[in-house]
Amino acid sequence: MGCFPLEKPEHILWTFLQQASPFLEHNHWVGVFIVRAQPMVNLTQPLAIGKFYKGFAHLALWTSVKQAAPRLLAIASQEKIVHSVIPLRWLGLFDPSEPRFEQMGWHPMVIHRCVIVLVGHSSWITQKQRNYQGKQIVCSITKTCRYEIARLLQGFKDKI
């Protein structure tokens, strides 16, 4: 699948960019869970959107691939059952970079009875955006992607 672990939080963005870029340069997809582990540790309300991890916008701007475009996916669950079964600290063995796996408590095991994957539009990165060096463009890309995911989830909600 091309998965790779991320480094410690202080190096996570740079390492992520270094590891993900070759995948894009070889015409492979890079999947990024842009809300990181937050929904795994603290369950969210249905159709809620968590805080975005900033690395996905940086990757889209930083890669040498000219046709890079974040394609947004939202995973919407209609029905789920939650059990607390795995100590959070145990998960730190698999991902030592995730600070949430250092806390006490249990990781919920979620059984989804019906899941729908919603596919959004590609958000093409323009040359003007690539040339801009600042937080404003990262915030703009993040805001656009957040809006698109909210639109996908709202469309899903309207159909159920």
Automatic annotation (TrEMBL):
Tell me a Gene Ontology molecular-function term this record carries: acyltransferase activity
Which UniProt key words apply to this protein? Acyltransferase, Transferase
UniProt protein name? 1-acyl-sn-glycerol-3-phosphate acyltransferase
Question: Which species is listed as the source?
Answer: Moorena producens (strain JHB)
> Could you read off the lineage of the organism from its UniProt record?
Bacteria, Bacillati, Cyanobacteriota, Cyanophyceae, Coleofasciculales
